[in-house]
Q: What sequence folds into this?
């Protein structure tokens, strides 16, 4: 299943132009407020109409303005999850879950018990929304969307209204849905933490234009997006395989694709598991020589690939280590004193406690 989107719409001075392809997994639409993310989602769902465009889901044409095709929203087989759960307060969880199937006149081809178990809501079925936490409500809303038997799932900042504790509660369920259902999921967010953890494909938007779209790992390594991705949250995504665990230390070794090794804090990963790690550029230090007598557990040989001088006291440096891209954000003073230049061999220092991880499913 895949989703092909090509849209253009102009409202006043705002000119939206978007073109991308979303495959199985999560395609994140990322950009600052006003970039056009939610507008694109509404057009895919049939809740807004572009001036020109074409949308194809799994080979089925949902919209083709040139051919006069514009399916109404209830015929597009789209599951939609909003910022707020929008549950019916007078219905039990069970009835809320089956409402989408009933309203869309869909066959019961998606197993109810499987979805309830997948989302951990099988013990909530006879309760009413008023008695649920914010995270529980969102899980019910996601279940309702899945039980409508959609061809694709659209999520409009589904965690925006939740506090950090509830976000941490629901993120594993989103990962499970991504890995189990095989549905294309278009996920709108302006939170880099969510995008880095969830996205397989990343579409970067700014003022209605797509600056770039592609594999999330490759997109994170690009320095040319600048303010659109946010310099402060600039990160790298590295992929590797769990090698072993140091006894009683809570540390594990990840062998990066390319033979370099990273030490991370995680006692739950299993040997042989594939892992994607997020490393913020501001957590990477550089040294011309291999240092000793320091607390950094990760000292990686690297080569400078690209440098972006900012209109600020900072410099962005793109490194290659073990065949993968790693970003570092250092001061201009450090850049000048170290003589950082393209092609320079040096060492990248990364704090063990600064590395976030996500387990990759077998299909990846």
A:
């Amino acid at each position: 299943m895949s989703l092909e989107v090509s849209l253009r719409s102009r409202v006043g001075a705002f000119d939206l132009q978007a073109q991308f392809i979303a495959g199985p997994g999560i395609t994140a639409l990322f950009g600052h407020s006003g970039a056009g993310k939610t507008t694109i989602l509404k057009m895919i769902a049939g809740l807004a109409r572009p001036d020109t465009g074409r949308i194809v889901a799994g080979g089925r044409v949902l919209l083709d303005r040139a051919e006069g095709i514009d399916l109404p929203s209830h015929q597009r087989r789209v599951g939609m999850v909003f910022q707020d759960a929008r549950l019916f307060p007078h219905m039990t969880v069970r009835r809320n879950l089956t409402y989408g199937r009933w309203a869309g006149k869909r066959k019961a081809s998606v197993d109810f018990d499987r979805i309830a178990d997948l989302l951990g809501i099988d013990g909530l079925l006879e309760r009413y929304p008023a008695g649920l936490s914010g995270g529980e409500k969102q899980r019910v809303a996601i279940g309702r969307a899945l039980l409508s038997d959609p061809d694709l799932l659209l999520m409009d900042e589904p965690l925006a209204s939740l506090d950090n504790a509830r976000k941490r509660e629901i993120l594993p369920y989103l990962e499970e849905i991504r890995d189990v259902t095989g549905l294309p999921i278009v996920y709108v967010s302006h939170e880099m933490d969510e995008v880095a953890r969830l996205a397989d494909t990343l579409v970067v938007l700014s003022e209605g234009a797509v600056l770039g779209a592609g594999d999330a790992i490759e997109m994170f390594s690009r320095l040319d997006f600048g303010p659109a991705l946010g310099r402060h949250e600039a990160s790298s995504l590295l992929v590797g395989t769990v090698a072993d665990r140091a006894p009683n230390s809570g540390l594990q070794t990840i062998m990066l694709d390319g033979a370099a090794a990273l030490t991370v804090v995680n006692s739950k990963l299993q040997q042989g598991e594939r892992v994607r790690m997020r490393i913020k550029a501001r957590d990477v230090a550089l040294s011309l020589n291999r240092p000793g007598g320091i607390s950094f557990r990760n000292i990686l040989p690297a080569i400078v690939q690209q440098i972006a001088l900012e209109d600020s006291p900072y410099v962005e440096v793109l490194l290659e280590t073990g065949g993968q891209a790693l970003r570092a954000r250092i001061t201009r003073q450090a850049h000048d004193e170290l003589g950082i230049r393209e092609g320079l061999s040096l060492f990248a220092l990364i704090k063990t406690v600064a590395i976030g991880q996500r387990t990759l499913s077998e299909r990846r």
